[in-house]
Amino acid sequence: MDAANPAQLYPQHLAVLKARADEALARSGHDHLLIPSGRRHYQLFDDRDYPFAVNPHFKHWLPLTTVTDSWLVYTPGQRPKVIYLQPFDYWHVVPEAPAGWWVGHCEVHVIRTPEEALPLLPPAARCAILGEANSTLGDYAPNNPAAALDYLHYQRSYKTPYELALMRLAQRRAAHAHRAAERAFRAGASEFEIHMAYCAAAQQDATEVPYQNIVALNTHGAVLHYTELDRDPPAESLSFLIDAGASHCGYAADITRTYAADRGSEFQAMIEAVDAAQQDMCAAVRAGADYRQLHLDAHLALMRILRDFGVLKVSPEAALATGVSAAFFPHGLGHPIGLQVHDVAGFAASDRGGTLPRPEGHPYLRMTRVLEPGMVVTIEPGIYFIDMLLDEVKKNGHGDSIDWARVDHFRPYGGIRIEDDVACTDGAPENLTRPAFA
Ligand code: GLY
Ligand code: MN
Ligand code: MN
Q1: Given this model, what pLDDT does residue 93 score?
Q2: Report field, pTM of the whole predicted structure over 0.90
Q3: Tag placement on the chain: N or C end, fewer CB within 10 Å?
Q4: Residue 254 Cβ < 6 Å to ligand 1
Q5: Going by C-beta distance under 8 Å and a sequence separation of 6 or more, which residues neighbour residue 65?
């Protein structure tokens, strides 16, 4: 068995999905699982469509991200049926004839219009239909039974070897593009030019990457979701924060790196300190670890760095208790990742529903579960110099915790974030990102 070959790993993946579907159907009381791939969405009063985003449940079964109006039909004990729309259409390039490692494992029906699916579907009343409302065809309206979705979303946290293989390939594509982006930064390119260099190297355009690229020079690094892309380079590029991923067969990579133009600067030293701390945090992705605790531990590690660099004047523990740490690190340590960059079930208390709360005072954490083998999470600590949040620190009476001259020194660099995607295993974690850069 070749652990890097999705074709060899697919049969085991399919067996896992079938077993999960059997249980989901038993729980929701249905006989068939129906998953529409989805339809196009159109802009208001316009015939212009938005980039198509396939139903994540569909791409879980099949490595298909561009086919619309198609269906996956699963009945326990039977081969999955794939109803595949390949329309007669001379306006657009239509999907290729079904091909790939999945075809031999499924009963494939090619249809030419969406309605041709109707006689191929089992009786609607007996179906759990997972999809969005606009996928409705005839009597087949998605009912999204909670018992089935709670179970399937929870189980989706546990990646199969096939999924991990696809995620490693997404990492390779993204890491190659990160290298190109760094070169463009060091050559003095604008944000827009760096973004274009990234997309060219990834061979994916803005509609294909799993989220909008964050390409931030200088103070723009302090805007957590900066997506503006200035067309002109700044007078001087001091720093570069890039949060950009890539997709492979519908699986996401989510990677952030930060660079200083001056490799001898204090900012470069701070990047290296965050990088080293981030590696320790990645090493803590172990079965049994509560992700909430990892998040709180990250606050303390980052505050130690700020104290070492003379920015913080109080202990890390005091900064965490007073909320000062959240002014410098105002987002969560990370999130589950897979078919969606922010994958489902980060708060799931069980496969029967329920929510695990965030720690008080940490409203942006996206993952509150205990880690188990097979889960993949991002680890993305950051330190930012955000005036809006630092003003709050002053207003709340904690201004004495900070050396403001040191803030003035670092403010022009914006911020630092280092983000890798890490798989939890039975033993040592597998950092999916670092080997892709090697
Ligand atoms: N790129 C979005 C995130 O890191 O969560
Ligand atoms: Mn990211
Ligand atoms: Mn992320």
Answers
A1: 87
A2: yes
A3: C
A4: yes
A5: 54, 59, 247, 249, 250
